[in-house]
Design a protein that fits this description.
- The chain is mainly alpha-helical.
- It is built from 26 helices and 4 strands.
- Helix 15 packs across helix 16.
- It is a multi-pass membrane protein.
- Its main location: membrane.
Length: 616
């Protein structure tokens, strides 16, 4: 009798254990009814999974970062790029020194960080690329294609900058750097050594470093303009091919491979910047350069242009609007604390910009002291800083070849991970939108990098600098500000800032504070609208030195910019035309999350209520 009771007890334990396993894995509840003649009778009830459980299911299927640090380094590596070195320090010096930090930090707090946080949360919750996330408001999916196109366009010329750095790196493995003297085959009669000519600031004179970049590397003297490009130069084409190969093998397997590459590319710049700073501060005149960088002129804050340049720098330095942050965060675990990530990474980006200023201006102060000229004669931004002024300063140091190698390795690492981010935005955005590409990621990645390489060949011709300048001017200017503006409106107003906050609370267990919600709904959209208007109002046609682009080239540039922006209205029209029912029904479906279309069938449309538009 006791043996039978023991068997019954064991059978009951087994049934309960099976019930627990099934409930956890298949969401099927088993209810024990009775046991008769050794046979157990049960009834079953299907349990609908909750939203978080659905997201967890998707999370199990989607690839995720190997480690949390892989994600953080990838975001930092993308956001911290060449502009942190060649743009921010010069803006700070030109716009009141330390006083420039006032508008910069102001716009960082009211717009930069909120938009950064918004994109990380958007990608992590929906676990899709830049286009796929708009299942939350289908009519806005066009903005996803806008940012994907912008990232693609930027890749056409950004990879060329990396190829220049690679060319300089190869050229640095010599006993004497090739940009030291004027006795090379590419030099013109206008070439003048700093030491041999006191009137070096004369517009008709050019330094050896300047002529090496323009005549020795670019061979721009062999072109009469953008309508006279010539053939691709094999030296730069070879460097570009190496860059493309590096990008492919960093991206072909997804974040599992790119997450490991950034351990080198994202950390190397900090090591090199520190080494260069330690060397720079020991140079004569370095302290004067740093003082000029930090000198505070609060009167400059009365100039509206200072505030506009600070706002512009915030817009572009954080990397918002390229779809990269959305793509990267879509590979996070669902419960990852994206709020903390946003604060950490955006702060590191800004601190890196500020820190690089000490490095840059210690060397600029040295150059000013060495050649006995005013600092503003040597201070500049853009490619001229990293490919002319800095190499020139390095060439005067003992062991110049070693310092040149170190410097250009830093430029390579700064450029590679930013290029990886832009390419990942395109790849993730498209394979998430067109699901059949998931099984062919390696082939599709190869197709994207080869297409990018072929277009980039126009930038490595004799007149390639003109193509580069045109792309740089139009590809990601007004269009990216427009894209982020539509993105902010779509999330905060149509999807709803309250609903978006609920999503974040579901992920991290903490609802965004009122400050963040107010920024998303009012401050950031107004800021972006202002920036779009300013961008149009202050537009100047591109130029390279004294060369002015012909009208047809400007038209091509505007067509490039408009081609990405038109994705927003074109897709909205397409969506409204392809949905069934009357116009009001089609509009309701188009602005309602895809998971809530059944509510539209019942006449429940949140966006058609006043409460939806007023709640914060």
């Amino acid at each position: 009798m006791s043996h039978a009771v023991e068997l019954d007890r064991q059978s009951l334990i087994i049934v309960l254990y099976v019930k627990l396993i099934v409930v956890m894995t298949l969401q099927v509840e088993l209810i024990l009814v009775k046991e008769q003649n050794g046979v157990q009778f049960t009834s079953t009830t299907l349990v609908n999974p909750t939203a978080s459980q659905t997201n967890t299911s998707v999370e199990e299927e989607r690839e995720t970062w190997g480690k949390k640090i892989d994600f953080l380094l990838s975001v930092i590596g993308f956001a911290v790029d060449l502009a942190n070195v060649w743009r921010f320090p010069y803006l700070c010096y030109k716009n009141g020194g330390g006083a420039f930090l006032v508008p910069y930090l102001f716009f960082m707090v009211i717009a930069g960080m909120p938009l950064f946080y918004m994109e990380l949360a958007l990608g992590q919750y929906n676990r899709e690329g830049a286009a796929g996330v708009w299942k939350i408001c289908p009519i806005f999916k066009g903005v996803g294609f806008t940012v994907i196109l912008i990232s693609l366009y930027v890749g056409f010329y950004y990879n060329v900058i990396i190829s220049w750095a690679l060319f300089y790196l190869f050229s640095s493995f010599t006993s004497e750097l090739p940009w030291v003297h004027c006795n090379n085959t590419w030099n013109s009669p206008n070439c003048s050594d700093w030491a041999d000519n006191s009137s070096v600031s004369d517009i008709y004179k050019a330094t050896p470093a300047q002529e090496y970049f323009e005549r020795g590397v670019l061979h721009i003297q062999d072109s009469n303009g953008i309508d006279d490009l010539g053939r691709p130069r094999w030296q730069l084409t070879s460097c570009l091919a190496v860059v493309i190969v590096l990008l492919y093998f960093s991206l072909w397997k997804g974040v599992k491979t790119s997450g490991k590459v950034v351990w080198i590319t994202a950390t190397m710049p900090y090591v090199v910047l520190t080494v260069l700073l330690l060397r720079g501060v020991t140079l004569p005149g370095a302290i004067d350069g740093i003082k000029a960088y930090l000198s505070v002129d609060f009167l400059r804050l009365c100039d509206a242009k200072v505030w506009i340049e600070a706002a512009t720098q915030i817009c572009f330095s954080l990397g918002v609007g390229f779809g990269v942050l959305i793509a990267f965060s879509s590979y996070n675990k669902f419960s990852n604390n994206c709020y903390r990530d946003a604060i950490i990474t955006s702060s590191i980006n800004s601190l890196t910009s500020f820190f690089s200023g000490f490095v840059v201006f210690s060397f600029l102060g040295y150059m000013s002291h060495k050649h006995d000229v005013a600092l503003d004669k040597v201070a500049r931004d853009g490619a001229g800083l990293v490919f002319v002024i800095y190499p020139e300063a390095i060439a005067t140091l003992p062991g110049s070849s070693v310092w040149a190698v170190i410097f250009f390795i830093m430029l390579l690492s700064l450029g590679i991970d930013s290029a990886m981010g832009g390419m990942e935005s395109v790849i993730t955005g498209l394979i998430d939108e067109f699901k059949f590409l998931h099984k062919h990621r390696e082939v599709f990645t190869l197709f994207i990098v080869i297409a990018t390489f072929l277009i980039s060949l126009f930038c490595v011709t004799n007149g390639g600098m003109y193509v580069f300048t045109l792309l740089d001017h139009f590809a990601a200017g007004t269009s990216i500000l427009f894209g982020v503006l539509i993105e902010a409106i779509g999330i905060a107003w149509f999807y709803g800032v309250d609903r978006f906050s609920d999503d974040i609370e579901e992920m991290i267990g903490q609802r965004p504070g009122r400050y963040w919600r107010l920024c998303w709904k009012f401050v950031s959209p107004c800021f972006l609208l202002f920036m779009v208007v300013v961008s149009f109002a202050t537009f100047n046609p591109p130029n390279y030195g004294s060369y002015m682009f012909p009208p047809w080239a400007n038209m091509v540039g505007w067509c490039l910019a408009i081609s990405s922006m038109t994705m927003v209205p074109l897709y909205a029209i397409y969506k409204l035309c392809t949905l069934p029912g009357k116009f009001c029904d089609r509009l309701a479906y188009a602005i309602t999350p895809e998971t809530e279309h059944h509510l539209v069938d019942n006449g429940e449309v949140r966006q058609f209520t006043l409460h939806h538009w007023l709640v914060v």
